[in-house]
Amino acid sequence: MTLNVIDVALGARSYQVRIGQGLVAEAGRQIAPLLRRKKVAVITDDTVAARHLMTLAQALEREGIAMTALTVPPGEGSKGWQQLARTTEWLLDQKIERRDVVVAFGGGVVGDLVGFAAAILRRGVRFVQIPTTLLAQVDSSVGGKTGINTAQGKNLVGAFHQPSLVLADIDVLGTLEPRDFLAGYGEVVKYGLLGDAAFYDWLELNAPAMARGDAALRQYAVTRSVEMKAGIVSRDETEEGERALLNLGHTFCHALEKATGYGDRLLHGEGVAIGCALAFELSQRLGLCSQEAPSRVRAHLKAMGTKVDLSDIAGELPSAEALLALMGQDKKVVDGKLRFILARGIGEAFVASDVPSDVVLDVLNEALKLRSVS
Ligand code: GLY
User: Fold this and answer.
1) Is there a single domain that holds both residue 50 and residue 94?
2) pLDDT in tens, the chain (374 residues)
3) Mutate-to-test residue for ligand 1 from 133, 145, 146, 161, highest number of ligand atoms within 8 A of CB
């Protein structure tokens, strides 16, 4: 088995992301050195539990580690006060102490919820991420952003709390629905677009075979994505500067997610893919990059079969003005001005803090027009 190990260098809070096949079945051996007593509390969701919890339980048992487990319902609805209260109180009932380790076993929702529960439980307990979706493996499990959604918006309540270890098992990606895998691909392509043109070239060539299931290609794509994220996070843990680049496509995405109700109409990674295409369109309109760049992005995303145009979203969408207003509520607004991640070309993203809203409206109006004629 090839095991790639990426260090997230954060001084006393440094940790490793280990990427390879069969890591869930190896989890006991991987986690054991972190434990001061042979007991872990695992939180997962019903879908992941049905597919993989037995494998994890056996792996822990082989190392003599006692496991207690809680499942939450799958889906974004679990990332809220109700499941946070349930999770933290359950951890207290299980007598999880500061020296213990909590395991977040699932996708981005479970990772964010459990990471936040671990951050506030007894003022902070250690936790291990075992991400089971492509999106969680390449993005949300790494970097310590944890939190929940509230009536006011997504991720508005949370904490930076770094995991002690991340185990990304490439094999579990094989059990994802194709739509979920492709949604995660939105976050993979983001890395090439924001800072690594050679990786983007590689994805154009190899991502179709990767999506079909090639494990070696998946391993490379996850490893390169995590390498890029680890580098950015270790230089800018709390998003004072460079880390904002990871939000490429996200300002458009958050408005579209809000407009579609954070549900099945648009998955987060699908919104990121559409958002990346729109961010390149906006960059081109502002004269920052050539026309070739947005065309290349759209052609690749289309070839992958992921959502790329507003016409790929079922049902009604609000007007360009209403979408712009939804962007204004994004938590990354600084002094009332919209901030966008724009690009001078593929692999050359930067933070632009004062983008003229009329150009954003033009881009949105054009995208909505294409939608009404398709
Ligand atoms: N998902 C963006 C970040 O971790 O900063």
Assistant:
1) yes
2) 799 999 999 999 999 999 999 999 999 999 999 999 999 999 999 999 999 999 999 999 999 999 999 999 999 999 999 999 999 999 999 999 999 999 999 999 999 999 999 999 999 999 999 999 999 999 999 999 999 999 888 899 999 999 999 999 999 999 999 999 999 999 999 999 999 999 999 999 999 999 999 999 999 999 999 999 999 999 999 999 999 999 999 999 999 999 999 889 999 999 999 999 999 999 999 999 999 999 999 999 999 999 999 999 999 999 999 999 888 655 555 555 678 999 999 999 999 988 988 899 999 999 998 776 65
3) 145
Calpha distance 222→144 (Å, rounded): 18
**What's the number of domains the chain is made of?**
2
- What six digits make up the tokens of 37? 């007593």
Domain identity same for 244 and 308: yes
Residue 166 is encoded by which pair of tokens? 């991340």
**Beta-carbon contacts of residue 336 (< 8 Å; ≥ 6 apart):** 328
Instruction: Confirm whether pTM is higher than 0.85.
Output: yes
Shared-domain flag, residues 223 and 330:
yes
Say how many Å lie between the CA of residue 139 and the centre of ligand 1: 6
**In the chain, beta strands by DSSP E:** 3-8, 15-20, 39-45, 66-72, 101-106, 126-131, 145-150, 153-160, 165-169, 340-343, 349-352
Asked whether 145 lines ligand 1 (CB < 6 A), one says yes
Q: Is 166 in the same domain as 275?
A: no
Q: Is 139 in the pocket of ligand 1 (CB under 6 A)?
A: yes
